[in-house]
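step=encode ok
step=design start
structure_in=
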């Protein structure tokens, strides 16, 4: 049985503070963040996180391989938006921060012209506005992910977790974002690094 979705009404908005997308030369984003096997937080076990922003003030990412109980049609119904695409299109759990905050990630130019849309890599855009949701609900892009919530790290926090061996950074892959099934994504991300996931042993250090 699906959870009631009325709590999401009127909650589709970008997280504060505004202006968190300032560029940083040494940014880890855009990239993929792979959870190592002994990561202490069970919510992030075997997760792969899409990093869309990283600078001295913190990091923002979206978990790619955790789903909510909601479909896109369910979510749009609570927001008085008519969903024209696949009624069972999934909504992902993006992370534990602001769980009623919605995100659209799309490949191509479908949301590129929206003022609140941000290009985080070549041909890849994200936005957190209701206008973005309306756009993809009316004409569903070929490459689309929907999220509720996000993963956030404060200043220096992610760097500390990398040093402790909780995560490994892998190169961004559009296939990983849009095409690889959830249950295969963790293994797939390791193979992007040329590593057999069966050989993974957690060790301290920045990767």
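sequence_out=
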């Amino acid at each position: 049985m699906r959870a009631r979705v009325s709590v999401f009404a009127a909650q589709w908005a970008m997280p504060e503070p505004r202006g968190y997308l300032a560029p940083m030369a040494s940014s880890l984003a855009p990239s993929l963040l792979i959870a190592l096997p002994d990561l202490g937080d069970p919510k992030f076990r075997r997760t792969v996180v899409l990093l869309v922003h990283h600078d001295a003030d913190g990091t923002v990412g979206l978990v790619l391989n955790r789903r909510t109980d909601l479909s896109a049609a369910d979510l749009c119904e609570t927001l008085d938006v008519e969903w024209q695409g696949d009624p069972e299109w999934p909504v992902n759990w993006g992370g534990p921060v602001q769980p009623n905050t919605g995100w659209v990630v799309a490949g191509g130019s479908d949301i590129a012209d929206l003022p609140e849309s941000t290009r985080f890599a070549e041909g890849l855009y994200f936005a957190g506005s209701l206008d973005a949701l309306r756009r993809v609900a009316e004409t569903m892009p070929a490459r689309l992910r929907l999220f509720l919530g996000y993963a956030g790290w404060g200043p220096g926090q992610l760097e500390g977790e990398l040093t402790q061996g909780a995560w490994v950074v892998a190169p961004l892959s559009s296939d990983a974002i849009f095409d690889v099934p959830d249950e295969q994504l963790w293994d797939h991300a390791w193979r992007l690094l040329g590593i057999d996931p069966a050989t993974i042993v957690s060790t301290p250090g920045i990767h």
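step=design ok
step=annotate ok -> Residues 1-11, 13-25 have pLDDT under 50 and may be disordered.
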